[in-house]
Amino acid sequence: xxxVGLTGGIGSGKTEVARRLAERGAMVIDADQIAREVVEPGxxxxxxxxxxxxxxxxxxxxxxxxxxxxxxxxxxxERLATLNGIVHxxxxxxxxxxxxxxxxxxxxxxxxxxxAENGLSRMYDAVIVVDASDEVRLExxxxxRGMSEADAKARMAAQATREARLALADHVVPNEGSLADxxxxxxxxxxxLRRQAAERA
Length: 201
Ligand code: ATP
Description:
alpha/beta
């Protein structure tokens, strides 16, 4: 199994790259998505969140009220640690199960937004960094995703710099052009990953 870390700043295009790698045969593991799945209605995770934070963390339809939970945990590091103590092990179990089910020749791509921030590059056989200027990412977040400019800027400022991320890259996907350019670059990187996986086999 070849383990590939995929990272990039908010709005850089990680999701677009991950989708194209999946189309080519990669097994994509998105920890943020799994973190949402482990607290879906009916899960042990949601029951534990409610036990720790109260029924008021549920919406009327019984799903997790993320906005309310977010305003509680981001104002209080201890409560954030409590939430992480519930969610992280469940995510870890799920990731381990997905990995165990992957065939030996699988190319597994981990979508890790905070790979640089958390110093995780050594966990992977290769690191892909999706790169775009702050201006381009801000424009995408505001225009395409409807985020406020202040919110988008604050999130970008809380993340690692482009330089810090690029320093970790084995493969860079520059993403300031068209999605067709992105597609072509992903094709090149996929070929390189296939070669790397074959050399190890
Ligand atoms: P986040 O960190 O918030 O998860 P991300 O890195 O996964 O973001 P995407 O969701 O892939 O970023 O891209 C952000 C938005 O910009 C999406 O709506 C996406 O479709 C759009 N986008 C990404 N790349 C391009 C491009 N080259 N041309 C046009 N739109 C793009």
